[in-house]
Amino acid sequence: MAASEELGIIGVDNFHYFVSEPSRSKRFYQDMFGWHPIARAGAEMVGRSGQDCTVYEGGGTRVAVSTPNNASCRAGRYLKRHPAGIGSMTFEVEDLDRAWKFLLSRDATPISRIQESRENGGMYRHFSITTPIGDVAFRFVEKRDFDGFAPGFENLVVDPQLPVNPLGFRTVDHVTNNAMSMISVTLWMEHVMGLEQCWEIEFHTEDINEGADGGTGLKSIVMWDPHSGLKFPVNEPLHPFFKEGQINTFVEANMGPGIQHVALEVEDAVATVKTLIERGVQFLDTPAVYYDLAPDRLLKKGVNVDEIQHNLITDLKPQGILIDGCPENNYLIQIFLKDAATAYNDPSAGPFFFELIQRCGDDGFGEGNFRALFESIERDQD
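Request: output the structure for the sequence above.
Response:
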């Protein structure tokens, strides 16, 4: 049995976000993303954990947002050391005992033994392990006929008059991690988690603007779990201008390695982004010259430029959405939200951000967009 099959990840059950301003999260997920609050930590859970928690759901994605009530709780300890950010990722697995044995045999470090709860005829089992991604933990859960989010949480009634997932969110496409040195993370993912490398890239603006007084760059390796299809890009800074680079900037702002962004798959990126902009969501700017150069770039990659140019590029430009492709006319479109600290003009909001992605046959990572976007920005600045 292959390593990814032994681990048996089905998908991301949820990611756990620690914040000190829960009203921002409510406004962001509920009012902007159109997600619904589906569960809330009950009184016993709040008293035992020392933190309030609300779970929001959109399509196949759930985020648990926790706020500390005291400094010694998990969220409180995290926020002592970091700005707001993701403290844990939870993965649903096929067989928790098998996942436990697999990870222990590969020298994983458990935080606790397997925990089991039974409610209303259902079963919820879980355990967590440490990771080299700063203070981020990975949790693994197995659920059988379990009705609800997790033990200790109360289900919330969603107003039936409200539209279900109006912006077409699907599931988590990938989870991107930043570190000062990627080797500890990628080796851990390979030798402990059993993940495999599927892609890598190295790029710096020095390549296209030699002799400049500044610039930015990165090295990125993508690890993936073939069984579930989940991907985990890992980034590190690239010299020259190491300190000015976006990866080093993230690690310094985050007070250590961490999850930089989560990519959410959407059904119709153009429509989703248009609505989000109307609701006040802020995205990274894309210079106009990027779209002038897009047809030639796509043509060199074997994409039907006429179809793309006429049917998509004119729709993508007003929203600043990026496009990349691969042979046989497959392509993807993607866009990045501004990080929370920038959006709220508050460093304590953290450097985390979301990516929205729509895949149209291209399973890559928009590698053409790395160079093209950097190049466009350089040209625009010139």
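The longest helix spans residues 367-381.
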